[in-house]
Amino acid sequence: VIQFDANGNLLAWMTDRYGSPRLHIRNLLDQDIPITRIPLEAAQGFVPMMAFSPTGETIAAIHGNGNLTVWEIDTVFPLVQIPFPDTNYQRLAYTPDGDSLAYSAGGLGIHVIDIASGTDTILSKTGYFVLALAYSPDGSVLAVGGIDSILLLDASSGDILATMGDVIPYIGQLHFSMDGNYLISASSDGTVRLWGIPSPPS
Predict the structure, then answer these.
(1) Hey, CA dihedral for 169, 95, 110, 59, is it positive or negative?
(2) Distance (Å, rounded) from C-alpha 120 to C-alpha 112?
(3) How far apart are the C-alpha atoms of 63 and 61, rounded to whole Å?
(4) Are the beta carbons of 135 and 94 closer than 8 angstroms?
(5) Neighbours of 109 (CB within 10 A)
(6) What pLDDT score was predicted for residue 73?
(7) What is the 3-state secondary structure (H, E, C) of 142-181?
(8) Which of 33, 57, 64, 102 is the most exposed place for a label (fewest CB within 10 A)?
(9) Which residue, 40, 66, 43, 62, is CA-closest to 51?
(10) Please, are residues 125 and 107 in contact by the beta-carbon 8 Å criterion?
(11) Secondary structure E strands in the chain
């Protein structure tokens, strides 16, 4: 697993040499800054999913033994650590302000963690099989990619605002445009689609 932060200034990757897994973070702008190395317990094994906060101040990772951890990068201090279902489909998405983190595991619903308090709230129990998560730039909408369609959820209430697509296979990537008016999706049939975001009812 390899991941850039939002500005392309930081690069994170994971190694597992001789049963000693580590998460590494490299500052690409200043090569004189030592690589940050976060030791992981051997039982944690492979990191199937990780994400930088938009500010580059924290990084979240889902570990193979069923833990979701959020670290402060400067201090390598674990801010949040919670049990996480060990499934094949695990997804993360920070809110644009970096204060909260949405996560999901397959069809087990969508949760949101407040990073400062560690409070874990269930946003949606739809049973929708989640393959991708993406927040709109203003943080008001959470786009959810599934097996055959895209849901737009109210990021505060979890209510479904719109359903887009009809039998689109396995939507694994979602990204909003910077103005929030468009959403781009990539699916397993090799297609990339550009969607206009419906205006909320007045």
Answers:
(1) positive
(2) 6
(3) 6
(4) yes
(5) 18
(6) 92
(7) EEEECCCCEEEEECCCCCEEEEECCCCCCEEEEEECCCCC
(8) 33
(9) 62
(10) no
(11) 2-4, 10-17, 20-27, 36-39, 49-52, 58-63, 67-72, 77-83, 90-94, 100-105, 110-114, 120-124, 132-135, 141-145, 150-154, 160-164, 171-176, 182-187, 192-196
* Cα-based distances in Å from 154 to 41, 47, 160: 37, 29, 6
Q: Which of 119, 151, 158, 121 is nearest to 133 (CA)?
A: 151
The SS3 call for residue 72 is: strand
Instruction: Write out the two tokens for 165.
Output: 């697509």
| pLDDT means over runs of 10, the chain (202 residues) | 90 80 90 87 61 93 77 91 69 94 81 91 81 94 90 94 82 93 92 86 51
Torsion from C-alpha of 62, 67, 72, 77, nearest 10 degrees: -150
Q: Pull the structure tokens for residue 63.
A: 């570990």
pLDDT at residue 47 in the model: 57
| HSE, side-chain direction, 13 A CA sphere, residue 162 | 14
Structure tokens given for 69: 């951890």
163 and 129 Cβ atoms separated by less than 8 Å: no
CA–CA distance, 84 with 64 (Å, rounded to integer): 9
